[in-house]
Amino acid sequence: MLFDPLTYATFVAASAALILVPGPAQALVLANTLTGGRRAGALTAVGLNVGTLVHAAAAALGLSALLATSALAFAVVKYVGAAYLIYLGIQALRSRAQATTAAQPADKSAAAPAASKAPLAQAIVAGTLNPKVALFFLAFLPQFVDPARGSVVVQMLILGATMAVMDTLYELALVSVLYRMRERLVGNRRFMAWQSRISGVILIGLGLRLAAQER
């Protein structure tokens, strides 16, 4: 058995506590659900956790150690990720989709602005280009790994996959709640006129937050 049951249960409990803390991932899910609907929100949740798997694999293979030791590597990844989020935010602010939606509130497919046309790809990129997550996995996962129980790489991959599945399920539940709220607001022209702006501000804020982070 790769894991002691108590150790694995402790990991699951710790992961649940971390997942429930509001953060950038939930903000991005919120933004894309409001602008693109349930499908966009669900794809965002899945994409973000593809990024989680990438970080788990990087930690298992030791690649995250590069970000921990190289200021240049950390800065490059950080600023590329921040620039991408800010770009998405600007695209959302410039979108004219809200005008179409206000004129035709029944056409829900017209409600999705530029920022949510490719939510899966965008979420994968946003989830992967966050060096703080890479460093977190490098520090967090090894605490629950026992080399005496088998391959360290396999253990870390399983732990990362566990956290990714838990986080995806939680964010899908958020999407369901947010979508119901959005459905009630679809007929509200003032809300529909502001939804792209809300999304844009959230994305730009996330980009600026990432750019300001230190190792």
Describe the protein's architecture and organization:
It is a single chain. Helix content is 78%, strand content 0%. The protein has ten helices and no strands. Helix 3 (38-61) crosses helix 8. The longest helix has 34 residues, at 152-185. It starts with a helix and ends with a helix. Mean pLDDT is 78; it is low at 96-116.
Based on the model shown, name its key terms.
215 residues; mainly alpha; 10 helices; globular
Number of helices: 10
In terms of per-residue confidence, which ranges show pLDDT below 50 for 5 or more consecutive residues? Answer: 96-116
Mean pLDDT figure = 78
The secondary structure category is: mainly alpha
Strand content: under 5%
- What's the story with the biggest beta sheet? none
Instruction: Please report the distance between the alpha carbons of the first and last residues.
Output: 35 Å
Approximate helicity band: over 70%
Q: How large, in whole angstroms, is the Cα Rg?
A: 19 Å
Number of strands: 0
- The string of secondary-structure elements, in order, is HHHHHHHHHH
Number of domains: 1
**Shape annotation:** globular
Gist?
The protein has 10 helices and no strands. It is mostly helical and 215 residues long.
Task: Give the SSE layout.
Elements: H1 5-19, H2 24-36, H3 38-61, H4 64-69, H5 71-94, H6 97-103, H7 119-128, H8 131-140, H9 152-185, H10 189-212
